[in-house]
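Changelog-linked ticket: adenosine-5'-diphosphate example.
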Amino acid sequence: MGKTPIIQVRGLTAGYKGEVTLDNVNFDIYRGEIFIILGGSGCGKSTLLKNMIGLHDPYRGQVLIEGKDIVLAEGKRRLQILRKFGVLFQSSALLGSMTIAENIALPLQEYTSLPRETIDFLVRMKLNMVGLRGYEGYLPAELSGGMKKRAGIARAMALDPEILFLDEPSAGLDPVTSAGLDNLIVQFNASLGTTMVVVTHELPSIYSIAHRVIMLDKRAKNIIAEGGPVELRDKSDNPFVRNFFNRQVGEGLNV
Amino acid sequence: MTKQAKAGTGYHIAVEKEGAEHWRLKLSGSVSSANSSRFLTDLTNYLSGGPVRDVTLDLGEISYFDSTAAAVIAQIRLRLEKQGSHVRLINVKPEIQGLFEILNLESLLSERDRLIEKGPSLIALLGGASLNFINDTRFTFAYLGDVTLALGYAFRYPNKVRWNDAFLYMERTGIEAVPIVLLISFLVGFIMAFQAAVQLRQFGADIFVANLVGLSIVRELGPLMTAIIVAGRSGTAFAAEIGTMKVSEEIDALKVMGLEPTRFLIIPKVLAALITVPTLTLMSDVVGISGGLVVGVVFLDLTPWGYILQTQRALDILDVFSGYFKSMVFALLISGVGCMRGLQVEGGAQGVGRSTTSAAVSGIFLIILYDALFTLMFNYVKW
Ligand SMILES: Nc1ncnc2c1ncn2[C@@H]1O[C@H](COP(=O)(O)OP(=O)(O)O)[C@@H](O)[C@H]1O
Ligand SMILES: [Mg+2]
């Protein structure tokens, strides 16, 4: 793995309505890496993601995507950066008035001039990939939470983005589907070199996919641990972090 | 595992023909969503010469290959096999093989598709919260700017408008509102004529009921009633729809896909309102006048033809035009405020409820405020 940073977060201070949730956060994500963001609920993981993809402006600091500041980018430049992204939102965020197939076709129609037939084929391909083949005609409201997540992932992957942001992709999935999803993430990363930024709580999935992990803490409003999962389990000087990584698989997160 | 390099800019296709029966296409370079539609056209052109028994696609020199490329290859293959050709992929690098595996192309190509039966549908309710006055004002100006720009863009590039959505909203705000608009307009015309008749009768001025009803309906009540009904039916619906999308992060999803919510969500609604509200207003005018006509004929013993002639004499084309113009402004107000209240939603489920209430209240308030302004203005310019 080359060590070129694809995302650089510099002195990021962010939150909602004047409240500071993240205080002076710094880290880099390298090209082709599977990068995990960990932390208890409400510690600002989703906030961090939204700042990284330019949906929410930080109070202070920079987010550089391949060296370009997304906060300052506007118009065409901004679109060029956004075009590199695929995003799964925590709430899936499928468009409720469109069928699953239309949701996934949307970015393809917008950014390619492929004919209808090929787009339909791609949509089926992507749905097949996340195990939702046959659900093309369903509306999002007609799917379970886990299925919506998977459809959201298919949409995020529609254009084979350079960077994929996944906010709790396995929340609401059964262990088998969740393992399948981990497999998908690893294979996608392997064959397309996609950089993955994943928010998750699932310890087994962290061990099986993570190249590097950061752990956020609500009180510190910052990163309290950074490194590979095994390294953090064995060598972290923070007992809380060591404990988290040493818990029995399947215990659930109580941070 | 090996990874593909970054997507490059171009690809090359070299055709080697070993007799008429066996063609080998050597593909090299990079195929991704940026150039895959050209790739599809090129491949189709190369292979359009008629059925070839064996086609070999050599992927050995491919440097980058994404899933749109895989879809193109799969489709070409499907087409050729339908014509009876035999297609082989050779020199597939492990990383591309890996991609084919995740995409599970084999199963997609071999099995027929079964669509899964639908169960009963669920209805999701969601919502948001409130904003202070300063923010509201600032937001309003930014929003007005956005919508104006987007409208200008829509008029310059009409083919970029999501017309399917616009037609859907025309049906919802227009066609579905016809019965209620007609009913209310008829009743208002009827009531007004009745009240006027009682008064005018004392002076033997029965026939002037037609003037009174005609002018009030066409200049004021037609546009006003229609606008109020549409604000109640559709302004609120716009707010609820967009508010729900805001709460469920759908607006965020659109933005991150590079689709501006203004162009994508708001313009179709604004255009739909701009077309339907004036049309409904004209219908309301006609039916309101007929309400008066019924009173004239039944209670005042006027002839229908006499009533119509009197109405015609009372009305000027400018009266109709001013009503039409007003109703276009009302349409902008209703749809604009409805969508804006939706975008302002914050927080949870109550937010959406509040935004719909606020869409109705501020919509109706603005309609009446502008109506007052227009009345003064038209009076001044003698319309
Ligand atoms: N839209 C919002 N408006 C106001 N506060 C918010 C909003 N979204 C999140 N927050 C607050 O920001 C903090 C971090 O939230 P979030 O990033 O969603 O946490 P996580 O994803 O780690 O569970 C929480 O205290 C939450 O209440
Ligand atoms: Mg979250």
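Closing comment: Example verified and attached. DSSP finds nine helices and ten strands in chain A. The pocket of adenosine-5'-diphosphate (ligand 1) is lined by residues A 16-17, 21, 39, 41-47 (CB under 6 Å).
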